[in-house]
Structures are given as structure tokens and as C-alpha cells.
Amino acid sequence: MKNILCTFFCLVMLPTYAQEKVVYSSPILKEACIPPYSDAISYGPTKVELGSINNTSNYYSEIGSNNFYTDYSSTSFTDIYDNQENTLIISLEPNKNRVVRAWIDYDNNGVFSDNEFIRNSSNGINESSISISFNIPSNAIKNTYLRLRILVEFIATESHCSGIYGEIEDYAVRIVSKTPPSSNDGFSIGRVGINTDQPQATLDIRENLYQNFQKDKHKVFLFRILQLLKEILLPMLGQERLYTILKTNVLKYIRVMLQAGNV
């Protein structure tokens, strides 16, 4: 009976808890200067990739379209790591000589200083993409969303707040330390830790668990099948009865099984 309940909980109920417990809210960033309006033709990036950021945009903006600046930070954000090299990839329209610059507001003061460049070059490039590898300075603010600003410009400029013949795009990044999970802290890939100190089972759902479900087609398929099972079985048992069974009989057993790697 315990094995059946454990299997049901781990494989059927966990996706439900994952949906209920993982709450994604848009980052709120420190305000930074907004580039002045330009009615010139602008040429910007076609795609920006960093961590879970994968944003595509139109590189070309017509005169008067007011697309010289776009703040994507509320919808495109990611974690970056302070103890490893990070890579930003910016895709460009080929054969269009462009200057590319990028900053991270490491001190979160709303100003992009010279020491906050992750790319600072006045040399134009004609390639279809550029890969920017960077490391996080030790004095950078961590565990808070910071503004990443990307400038793609027709001519070299030192300003992070102008793009007369180009485009500026903003994103959000959060600096975290990448450490191996402990036995009590959940598992980074495909496993969930249970905190039994709470009145009800509280699941420590990692962001990358959700992302793994999204990226791995086999897991997505399994996830959908389990959701269907949950919709059938949960009405039969009822939430209150199921929670009572889990809390009184099998919760500790499930935790032991999870930590032992048997489920």
C-alpha cells in the first residue's frame, strides 16, 4: 500500500504541486535612463540568448517607428552564476557593420559605469552573431535582479543611453552561486525535496525542474499523462482524505525514498 501511495504521490501529485508552488513574478528593476526618442532608421539585434533568455526581435525599424529602445526585463530574465563563466550570444543581421556593447548594472544604482561593461568595443562587426563570455566581479550585488543593457549601433558611441542609428534592449539577470544540492535541499534535476516541518507538505521546487519539463519532450509527455491520471484519481480520493493519508502515513516514507534515490 505504501509503495502504491508513494508512486501515486511522487509521479502524479508532484506535477500538481510544482504548478501550485512555483510562482514566477516579473522582476522589478532599478530605474535607468531611457534613451531619447529618435526618428532615424534603427538596426538592432535579431536575437539575444543568455541562460533562459531567448528573445527574438526585428532588427530593422522604420523611420518614426519608435523602436529604438525596448525594455524586455519583465518577460525575459535569467539567473547567471558568480563562480563560472557566462556567455551572452547576440545575433545580428549579417553584412551590416555594427558596433555592439553590453553592460550589467552590477551595483544596481541605475547607472551603467565603465567598469560594468561586459563588452566594450568601438570596432564594427559584420558577423551574424557575436558570443560574449564574461565573469562576475566579486563586488556585484547578488540574488537581486539587475539590468542588462545591450546596444547595437551603426556608429561607435560611448553612451549607454543613446542609439540614434541603432537599438537598445534591456533584460534582467540575477547573480547566484551555483552549488551542488544537499540531501535536504531538493535535487537540481528531476527530484523534489519535502519539508516536513510545515503543517502541510511544502515542496522545494527548483526552477530548472520546471525548465527540464519544458525542454525534454519525453518528460513533457509523461507530465501530461500524469496530469490526466491526477484528474481521474484525485476526485475519487478527495483532497482532504489524500492529504490526511500523506501527512499521517507515508510522508516520512516518501522523504526517505527520495533521499535514497529509490523513486
UniProtKB/TrEMBL annotation:
<feature type="signal peptide">
    <location>
        <begin position="1"/>
        <end position="18"/>
    </location>
</feature>
<feature type="domain" description="GEVED">
    <location>
        <begin position="100"/>
        <end position="173"/>
    </location>
</feature>
<keyword id="KW-0732">Signal</keyword>
<protein>
    <recommendedName>
        <fullName>GEVED domain-containing protein</fullName>
    </recommendedName>
</protein>
<dbReference type="Pfam" id="PF20009">
    <property type="entry name" value="GEVED"/>
</dbReference>
<dbReference type="InterPro" id="IPR045474">
    <property type="entry name" value="GEVED"/>
</dbReference>
